[in-house]
Every structure is written in C-alpha cells, then in structure tokens.
Amino acid sequence: MTLQQIRLIIAAVIACLVAAPFVLNPFSITLLNYIGIYSLAAIGLALLTGVGGIVSFGQAAFVGVAAYSTAWVTAVNGYSPWLGLVLAVVLTCSIAAILGFVTLRLGGHFLSLSTVAWGLAIAFLFGNIDGLGQHNGISGIPPISIGPLALVESRQIYFLIWAIVVAVLFVCYNLLDSRIGRAMRALRGGNTLVESLGISAFQIKLATFVIAAFLGSLSGWLYAHLGRFVSPGPFEAGMGIEYLMMAMVGGAGSILGGVVGAAIVTLLKNTVQDYLPLIAKGASGQLEIVAFSALFILFLQRARQGIVPFLASFLPDLKQSRPQAADPLPLRDKPEPGTLLLKVREAQRRFGGLVAVNNVSFEVKSGEILGLIGPNGAGKTTMFNLLTGALRANSGEIAFAGRSITHDQQFHIARAGISRTFQHVKLRPRMTLLDNVLLGTYSRTRTGLLAGAFRLNQAEEASARYEALKQLERVGLGDKPFELAGNLPLGNQRVLEIARALAADPTLLVLDEPAAGLRRQEKLKLAELLRSLRAEHLTILLVEHDMEFVMSLVDRIVVLDFGSKLCEGEPAAIRSDARVQEAYLGGVA
Amino acid sequence: MTADIAAILAIDGIATGAVYALVAIGTVLIFTVTRVIFIPFGDIAAFTALTLAALDAKQLPGTVGLVVVLACMACAMEVVALARAGELRAVPKAVFGYLMLPLIVVGIVWLTMRFNPPMPVRIVLALLLIMPIAPLLDRIVFRPIADASVLLLLTVSVALHFALVGLGLLFFGPEGVRTEPLTSMAIEIAGVHVSGQTVLILTAALVFSGLLFAFFDFTLIGKALRATALNRTGARLMGIRPARAGTIAYLLGSLMAGVSGVLIAPVNTIFYDSGFLLGLKAFVGAIVGGMASYPGAALGAFGVGIIESFASFQSSTLKDVIVFSLLIPILLWRSLASQHSEEEVEE
C-alpha cells in the first residue's frame, strides 16, 4: 500500500464523518458524539498503556476533573465554556504532572496500583465537596458557543467533537513518528534500554502521562457541555476500567485503536442495554456490568492483541521510501588517538556481603580495543554496569574524557558519549530496523514534543533518518530498513544493536558479550566490523567470553577474577600468563 | 480531642484493623502463591456477611446460585481442557472436584437449614458456602492465563471485581444487612468501654493468623505452598503442582476473608458492593508488607484501621480519600525500600 492510497482512505473517512449528521437520525448522532468523546480519553490511554506500557485505572478521574472544572466555571460562576476549557486543561494537566512526578518512579504493578488509589480518591472528592453539588452533581451547564452560534443540538456539537478527534489522531500519529514519540515507544523495553540511549525514562513517562491526562481533559470538557450535567457516577473506578477496556480492545499499541475500541464498547453497551431486558426482566442494570466484565476477561484471555493490529495484519505492507540524502547530524569532538579516555580507579561494588568488583583499576586509551575477560562470576557484568551507570560504585572513581561520571545517571553517561549494547539483545521487536537505529540518534537531536507533534522540525528528522540509514549500511543491514527488528536472526540483531549504538556517534563503544550465541561465520563478520570501526579511530571496550574472538581482535586485555583485577597486557602475554591459565583451567596439580 | 475520645477511636481502629488484617493476610497469601493481586477479596468478605444474614433470616442465600453457576462453568472448562489434552481418564476426578464437591456443600447447607441450626452452625455454613467461590473463579478466570504478567493478571482481577459486584446485586439484591451481634458482653479496660464484639474480632484475627502460621510451618502442604511462593518452577520440579497450590491458597484465603465478613457484619451494614472498599483498604495494608510479609501486612492493616478511625472523626466524608491518598506515599516508600528487578512489559 502506498502513502497515496492511505491519504485517499483518510479523505474518504473524513468525508463520511462530515456527511454522517445529514444522513443519520438524531439518536445515532448522539451515539457518535459519545463515541468521539470516549475516543479522546481512550486515545490518551492507548498512548499511556499501549505505547508507554503504563497501565492506568485512573483515566476516568482525569476526565472527571476536567468535566467538574468546566462545570464549576460555567454553571456555578457563569463564565464562558472556553474559560472552562482553559481551567479544565490547566488543572487536569497540573494534577497529572504532580501525581506523575510522585508515582512514575514506581515499578510495574505498583504504579498501576497507585492509579487505582488516586483514581478512587479523586472520584470520592467529587461526591463530597460542597461547592460541587455533592452526589447530586452540577446541572445547568451552558452549551459551547463559537462566536454567536451556540452548539445546543447534538448535530451541532458533533462537528466540534469529531474535528477535535481527527486533529488529535493526526497529532498523535505525528508525535509517535517523531523523536520524542520513538522514545515513548521504547519505554516498554525497560528503563535500562531507554536510559542507555541517552533518554531520561522518567521525563518521557511524565510527558506521556500528562499527554494522556490532557486528552482526558478534552474528553471531560466536551462531556460536560454535551450532557450539560455532571455527577460523580461517570468518573468512578468502573468507568476507569471501561476506558482501559476501550483502549485494549481497540489494540492498546495503536492510536486508532482508541477510536475503534470506544466505538465497539459504546455500541456493544447500547446493544446490551437493548437486549438484556429480554433475557432477564428487571435485572438489566447489574447484568450489563457482568456481561461487560466477562467479555473483557475473555478478551484478555484470548485476544490481547486488540482489533486494529489484528486487522492491520491483513493489509498489504506500507511501501515506505528510503531516507534521502540530507545534511549530516553534528559530530562530537573526538579525542586524539592515544590519549586517556576512560579511567577506572579503585572501583568497588558490593551486593550485601558479596564484593562483586573489588578495587579494580584500569584505563582505556582513545582509539584502542580493550577486552575485559574473566571466568564466570569474575565481575565482568558488574564492572560493565558500573561503567554505564546501570549500577553505582560503592567506592572508587570512574572518569570519562577527563570528567568524573561515578555518580552520573545512566542517561547522562550515555549523552556524554558512551554507547552500549546488551548481552541479552534489547531491541524493540515491533519497530522497524530504521526506527530502532533512529532511537540511537536521540542524544544528537533536539526536536521537542510540540515540534514533533506538529512536524515543525523536518530538516533535523530527515538528517536523523539519513544518519540511521548510513549506520544500517555501515553494519551491512542497509538493504531492508523497514523490516521489523523482531524478524531478524540473533546475529543480525546484535549487529543492529551496534548500529543503534553507532548512531549516537559515541566516543566509546562498550559491547557486552557481542559474540555470545553467534555462529562462526557471524563471529568472523562481527570481528571484521569491529576492526573497521577501530580503523575509524573509534574506541571499543569489549566484555567477552570467546577467547579466540578476543585474542584475534583486541589491542589489550584486562583479566578479572573473583572481582579483582588479575592482570593486564597484550593478548600474547595474557595467553601465556600462568595466573590466567590457572583462573580459567584450574591449578596444575 | 480528649484522651478518652482518642482511646475510643484507637480501640475502634484496632477492631477495624483486625478485620482488614485477615483480608490482607489472605491477599498476600494469594499473591505470593499465584502472583494474582486478588482485588475481589473484599467481595468475598461482603458475600459471607450477606450469606450469613440470609441464613439468619431462614432464606436460601444467593451464594447457592452463585456457587452452582460457577461450579458448572469451572467443570465444563476443566472437562473441555482435559478432552483437548486427551486425558479423558482424569474427567471423573475433575467432575468430582469442580462440580460434585461444591454441590455437596450446597446440599449440606440446604439440609442443615431445615433443622433451624443455632448461630455457630450458621456461621460455619456461611463459611462453607463461600469457600468454593474463589477457587472456582481461579479455575475459570486465572488458570488459562496463569503465566501472564502481574500487570495483566491485575487488570483481569479488577475486571473480575466488577463482574462480582454485578453478580452480587443479582444474587443478593440491593438491601443492606446487619447480622445479630455475636456477643452482648462488654468489658472495661482502664476506664474505657470495650465491647465484646471488639474482643471477639481481635481474638479471631489472632487465632486465624496463628492457625495459618502453624499450617505453614508444620504441615507438608503448607511448606509446599511456601515453596511455590518462593519459586514456581523450582516447586514444580519438586513435584508440587502450582495449580493445586493455587487452589489451596484460594481456599485458605477465602476462609480468612469469610471470617472477616462474619466479624464485620454485626458492626457495619454490608451491601452487595461494600467489599470493594474493604478489600482495597486491606490491600493498602498488604502493600505496607510489600505484598510478601504476613506480619507486615497485618501491621499495615491495623495502621489503616486506626488512621481510618481517626480520619472519620475529623471528617467522615473524606475518610476514604485520606486512606487512599495515603497509599501513594506508602507505595513510594516500598518502591524505594525494595530493589526490584526490571520487568519488561510484554508485547
């Protein structure tokens, strides 16, 4: 499928949306209005839950904060709904920012539990504050006016609602295809991956969280002025899970899924309300929630993927054009070959009583390949984590390019010019090769959230895409940039990680067991690639098990054993060192 | 606030806390063995109270219908699963375990009720009736996705809670109930009036926690459960079936929740949907213990009870807001205290 065809489809859908109110009966239009409103909240949740991997049960509370804000401004104080919108957005986003700031450092299910907690607390507040009408709610909310035109009828507000939905869809798709959006899509890979790319996971999570709340606030504002009445009911915990259901049924990783999910859930609910009384008279209210929960559980058990990704798999692939040549991204100032680049002095790391790295010191000079070897349990991985900031040293110092990085956060170290790969490959399997490598350019590019969402910085994006393609070509993966990373064999996945690391234009490349699990041919190709990088004066630190691979490649070797440095020297000297032989092969009896 | 009022509030809080503690311990038990954060636990407690009230009124409780429906579903699922796996020989055992056993329980209750049994017997009957529900739900809802992430299990668990609330309304009706007090005694400690009910609640909480402790330390099944909690794969290699361990955990947990429901029913009016708040507050307590430590969960639950008691004295409408807002600092403290390993979200 080409871009042209997609544009045609979009135009046709928009034409249908415009024509709908002239064709459909008022009831269907009202239904469409609610679908649009729920879509906004569900799109927010699709971003937060599907893209960012943060399951939130509290979206309904954000919708409620906005609905109550505008109700208070307009019905209680008599100001314009547009002022209501301002307060709704500002208040909701502020609350989200504060809640996010406090809770987003929590891990996994603890974070989701906190959303249950504040979701409930906020919902309780609505029913218990005197100024907000308590459990009776606030009625008499005026309609939204555009100039002299008051949007009283559902046919009128329909255009406003769906204009907002369509605009939000465009902006969200732009955003996901931009620098910040790619960082959001990487969040599911875990903090270590995200931070190793020079991205502050916390900042990106916070941004995603506030965006989700912002979309919730648009939804709440429209909700209040469509129904002209707010009460605590629609913002309670039950609705929070209904929004989650919409986002997940539609396909949590997909923005369009928010709209599809909202449509399906709303229509299904409507149908259930029509037919349940036929099955069980007088019991429809309670059966509705049972039927819905049961369907949701069944869905989570059987088809977690969601509808939109499922349908999309039947569509022909999108034909994308290869990135065109563009201005290169700025390069880092590289140190002269032979100068001191990395200095580790007396680094120590303890885990309880175990000293994993015990007063290890070594240096890496610019332009060399240094191998860090040692038998199992020697502390190689811990040393590696200390260098990249994944762990903090208990004592000692690590200096990079003349600056201490001992206490720096991971993403600061990555931005300073240390790029890494992982022993267990960490790629985003559902992103293309190009997008995976583009993640590496994050620290070299500047495009912010809004610039990305409104496509204001296309020059930099073009440069980044071209850079990513160049790195793919450099490692030999340039022929299929739009293949999904998850479809590559392991050997190529490791190479892809190296391309991603190279895209950051690192001063020091640290590789964690790059040859592990590779076949002989793949190892030879990898060694060749690393040699060519050295020829370009890139400094490489290598943690590796495979002796043959290390010996043939590196300039110098540091040997660790039981957390301490055993010796250091050129490969030939290390090979004949008695202490090394004893550490690997055991003592001569 | 005078010292007298403070003392009364404290005692009140401890009594509430004891009820939460029982549910909290059950929550921790189920989480450690099955990794499911079983939100509907409060509903189990509330359903026990409603069942007891129906038995008191000499009616057939709605629980009977619920158990029969769930038993049929669970049995059907198990038989289909066995047939697909080609293990038809195991079918009679499955039918017995998932269908006959719950039906026998229902039969016992139905028969015994004809003789107008005294209060203690009715309590036992209520507990008997409530105990099959959670294991059956486990079979229907969680067993097919036992290996999913904690996050997905949590989402399912929240959805299950809403299904149960709907079923609760269907089977028990919208009326609130308050059962007759278990005792009318009262004692005086240091000039403060303490009702017999409070003493009973505390005693029951201590006895049942003690029993659980003994079960874990002195029986082989208890040890198997602990092993499963520590390492599912390892336990499996030692011949412990995680599914069976899960069933036992749900049974035990239901017993704890059921007892707490019986204890709270004479003190608070219980509706079909009262369980949510009860469960969540117990859950706040469980999180204090990091979802792993039983004493920690119990202490946390007592803390919640006391805070709630004092909060409701200050502002009865906002007490729930206060309790749930407290969860956030607690979670922060827990996440700082525990060095959890990084878990990638599944695709």
From TrEMBL, chain A:
UniProt name for this protein: ABC transporter domain-containing protein
Pfam family, one: BCA_ABC_TP_C
Keywords (A to Z) from UniProt: ATP-binding, Cell membrane, Membrane, Nucleotide-binding, Transmembrane, Transmembrane helix, Transport
Cellular component annotations (GO), alphabetically ordered: plasma membrane
Cellular compartments annotated: Cell membrane
GO function terms (MF aspect): ATP binding; ATP hydrolysis activity; branched-chain amino acid transmembrane transporter activity
InterPro entries: AAA+_ATPase, ABC_AA/LPS_Transport, ABC_transp_permease, ABC_transporter-like_ATP-bd, BCA_ABC_TP_C, LivM-like, P-loop_NTPase
Lineage: Bacteria, Pseudomonadati, Pseudomonadota, Alphaproteobacteria, Hyphomicrobiales
Bilayer-spanning residue ranges: 6-24, 36-62, 82-103, 110-129, 157-176, 197-223, 243-268, 275-300
Domain ABC transporter: 342-587
TrEMBL record, chain B:
Keywords, sorted A to Z: Amino-acid transport, Cell membrane, Membrane, Transmembrane, Transmembrane helix, Transport
UniProt organism field: Bradyrhizobium jicamae
Domain of life: Bacteria
Membrane topology: Multi-pass membrane protein
Protein name (Swiss-Prot/TrEMBL): ABC transporter permease
UniProt GO molecular function: transmembrane transporter activity
Sequence intervals crossing the membrane: 6-29, 61-83, 95-113, 119-137, 149-172, 192-216, 248-271, 283-306
Similarity section: Belongs to the binding-protein-dependent transport system permease family. LivHM subfamily.
InterPro entries membership: ABC_transp_permease (IPR001851), BCAA_transport_permease (IPR052157)
Coarse class of the protein's main subcellular location: membrane
Subcellular location: Cell membrane
Biological-process GO terms, alphabetical: amino acid transport
GO cellular component: plasma membrane
